[in-house]
Amino acid sequence: VIADVHAACQHATVTQELLQAGFHRELLVKVELGEGGEDARGCTVAARIRLPPGIYVDPYELASLQRHNLTKAVLVPAAVDVEAPEYSATELLVLLYMEPNPWCSRCFRAVLPMHGRYHRPAEDSEEASVVLKSPEVLRCCCDNRLSTECWTPAEVEAPCSSKPDGPCQWYSTMRKPVPEELILQVPVGLRQHSSMVCVLTLLATGLCSSLILAAVCKHGHFS
pTM of the predicted model, to two decimals? Predict the structure, then answer.
């Protein structure tokens, strides 16, 4: 009987893909629920993503996208220091709501904009590797009960999009293990260039300050 129960609980398949290049990227997440179990209609599917310190999501950008119904997600913590470098930042938890595929009742997808943080200068490499682990698949069915053999309750402090004002219980499902983790390459500076960068920065700062001071003296009105 136990073997039959586990056979009916098909794994959810999760795939991730990085779009664009450089510091400003987009993470495409696709979820396909298993063939067994309950129908996904009337339920909300989300991906719980743990972003390492080398990556962050801009809460202001996310709020703008949510106003235009382009992306819906919840950040934990909600306040994100977008200026912090990688070595002083902390892990970020993102609950990304998935959009259903109209041609596949078990398929969902969503895109999350994210940005690479500045890393410490490296000795001999112009890129730093940031590892993205596979997300956890969550499901919230406010009007339906999920099979306890296939789904386990998950502690998630976020509303179910179908009933944003009512209490909802999220559930976690089994997922197929991915063959390898997704690796994001972030550009970094080289330590041997530190002196040159400092000199150029001081020269640029001095030049700009002189131009501003000259403009104030020429066009300013002093009483």
Answer: 0.76
